[in-house]
Amino acid sequence: MRVLFVSSEIHPLIKTGGLADVSASLPRALQTLGHQVTLLMPAYRDALAAASALGVRLIATHTIDGQHVRLLQTRLPRARNRVWLLDCPPLFDRPGNPYQGPDGHDYPDNAERFALLCHAAALLAEDRLGIGWRPEVVHSNDWQSALVPLLLQDVRPRPALVFTIHNLAYQGLFPAATLQRLALPARYWHPDALEFHGMLSFIKAGIVFADRVNTVSPRYASEIQQPAFGYGLDGLLRHRAAVLNGILNGIDDREWNPARDAALAQRYGTTTLGRKSANKRALQQELGLASDEGTPLFAFIGRLVEQKGIDLLLAALPELVRHPAQAAILGSGETASEDALAALAQAHPGRIAFRAGYDEALAHRIEAGADVFLMPSRFEPCGLNQMYSLRYGTVPVVHAVGGLADTVVDATPEALADGSANGFHFLTDTPEALLAAARRALALHADPEAWRRLQLSGMRADLSWRRSARAYEQLYASALADTAAA
């Protein structure tokens, strides 16, 4: 199949979260299966700089919505996928991340910026830029590209339209006047289309008009149809339940492989698990933690926001490190949370280490050096860090929601006996529940043989994109069959 994959971020060109990882790994895996997957994303300043090392060439120019744009081509590292970069300097040549300026505030013209991306995708789907290539499937991701299915509704013949929700909490909501600013037809200002409580919702366009809607784990696909996780869209999602799927994300098991990871102090695998301890010693030294191989080392990597349960972590850490235990934390987000973590590290020298920001190599070293990985997310569409942890023999402790529940098997007596256990669950989003699960982990950690079995269970699991890519292949085929029959 010929697939146009539209995303607002792609690793390693630019990354703010898991969407970038998925937008590289899934197209790469689909290409390996024999499909031709071309990616489209904006040519942000940092993305262009990153692409320059891979080679960039101009393939088309056009005027879209009054903006002169250039379409540049580069490639996805370690793959045969083309990447098309939509170059429009007035909208994309800016400092900061794809969505916010250096001041941490959203760009006020984000609606125009990502509407341009959607219009470019629609033109490419009709081969109106003169490239000589038309996709059979257009796959849009999250609110930034959710207008694509709407824009292609009346095209005949048209490609099959697939829309993936990576995180329903981010919906692309803008004032009502945005409809006119974007020159969208007035008929779409309706609760059955773009209107959402008096606001314009980008994400509704994808949910309403795509042939297939999916999200990134089976559990999350069920959760978002309920009020607690649906963010006001649960009714619409229940209405579209017949075309709603959940496909668990995979991980890039070449990049996240402790046996080949160049960032580690000592590489290791299932048959050399004892070498993992060298990474713990190196991490303790790097972060200024007390050098004590016997003290369990807990880790957290992620955004310091309420969704990720940062308040639960902050409340639990002082008690956790009294057991004794250590904690290594890497992340950025709300200033208050960063300040609180810095204060805890200062109050518990040698026990708690905090590094603000994101460092990809350090993230690999933390995954390899820690004993336990904490993921107290209030909701988690899929989650990748628990899978990285399983791959690295670092046992996850997770709030049993979304993809966390789908990938981590709780160490109940039954699961320990049959060898399926690979981590620990807690069921309520409270500090007490998090601590109780962490104490269960500490108790099992005291039994080296039982702990090793838990580690190996996680390390041997197939967490790769190969499995998930097959599921997307079937999703595309079913959407194509419906489109052909229409």
Structure description:
This protein is of the alpha/beta class and 486 residues long. The protein has two domains: 269 residues, Rossmann fold (3-Layer(aba) Sandwich), CATH 3.40.50; 193 residues, Rossmann fold. Helix content is 39%, strand content 19%. It is built from 20 helices and 18 strands. It has a nine-stranded mixed sheet with strand order 3-4-5-2-1-6-7-11-12, sandwiched between helices. A six-stranded parallel sheet has the order 15-14-13-16-17-18, sandwiched between helices. Strands 8-10-9 form a three-stranded antiparallel sheet. Helix 1 crosses helix 20 and helix 11 packs across helix 14. The longest helix has 21 residues. The model has no long low-confidence stretch (mean pLDDT 96).
Strand and helix map with partners:
Blueprint lengths: L1 E5 L11 H15 L3 E7 L2 H8 L4 E8 L2 E9 L6 E6 L1 H4 L17 H16 L11 E5 L5 H5 L8 E6 L7 E3 L2 H4 L13 E2 L2 E3 H8 L2 E4 L2 H6 L3 H4 L3 H6 L4 E3 L29 H12 L9 E8 L5 H11 L5 E8 L1 H13 L4 E5 L3 H10 L2 E4 L9 H7 L3 E5 L2 H6 L5 H6 L5 E3 L4 H15 L2 H12 L5 H21 L1
Supply database-style keywords:
486 residues, Rossmann fold, 9-stranded mixed beta sheet, 6-stranded parallel beta sheet, 20 helices, 18 strands, 19% strand
